[in-house]
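Box 4.2: Ligand-aware structure prediction
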Amino acid sequence: MEFVTLNDGVKIPAIGFGVFMIPADGSTYEAVREALDAGYRHIDTATAYFNEEEVGKAVRDSGIPREEIFVTSKLWLSQYGYEGAKKGIERSLKKLGLDYIDLYLLHQPYGDVAGAWKALEEAKAVGKIRSIGVSNMTPKLWNTFVPQFKTMPSVNQIECNPFSQQKEMRAIMDVNDVKVECWYPLGHGNAELLNHPTIVYLAEKYGKNAGQIILRFETQEGFITLPKSTNPERIKSNLDIFDFALTQSEMDEMRSLDTGKTSHDPDADGVEDYLLNAFKIED
Ligand code: A2P
């Protein structure tokens, strides 16, 4: 496994196992145990995934030393503001049953973002969280909120894949060495992406599958990537991308696949209300 060094010095495994939409009926526990057995050492959950308890139990039961597993969680929108965020962080720690969280993100960039961020900074200062970051920020949202922060985020977790390369956002983040974390790194299984002639050609050349070529491109670009799969073979194979490298001209070819578009537009009207209604957190 390769690691990416964040702008606060913390090292994060370049590939993570995401658990969005995995139910908390034992399935998350099983999936995380399997992922850890397959070699994943980075698990990405969130308050709004409603499965932090099972993630924490799987991490604790795995027998793998805690410091070898990187755990990310996220604060939900309804917990924003300074006081709400303090409670939200404690809630995540309790649900996970862990002494610290490796990376904690503001899941969505709306409302009292600056107040919530201050609580994250304080939790980092006392060691409850090792690194702090944001998610779903566009250039517009970044320029609205981040100038109010004392500490620069370590990551921005955004929709990112060869068709959605986030070049404008990355140019802003690069100034402060803020890393990209990719959600939908495989375009959510977009057949057009997975069957793109450039990707199919490279897959044949390197004896890899299309997903592995995409993930290799992303990690070689310096991104941290969170591929989703329910297929045990692909869960394993998505980690098996560190025994080959794309050439400079192949990287350029992959860079040229960018459409400049994303499926989710965080700047659209009504997103905050939609999200607040879609995910309701209880105590
Ligand atoms: P499956 O669960 O059958 O493996 P994303 O991570 O961008 O949300 O994409 C997830 C989708 O990509 C799922 O439909 C998943 O299907 C599929 N997928 C995961 N890994 C690969 C791979 N290596 N090659 C092709 N498709 C993949």
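In the box above, the bound molecule is adenosine-2'-5'-diphosphate. The radius of gyration is 18 Å.
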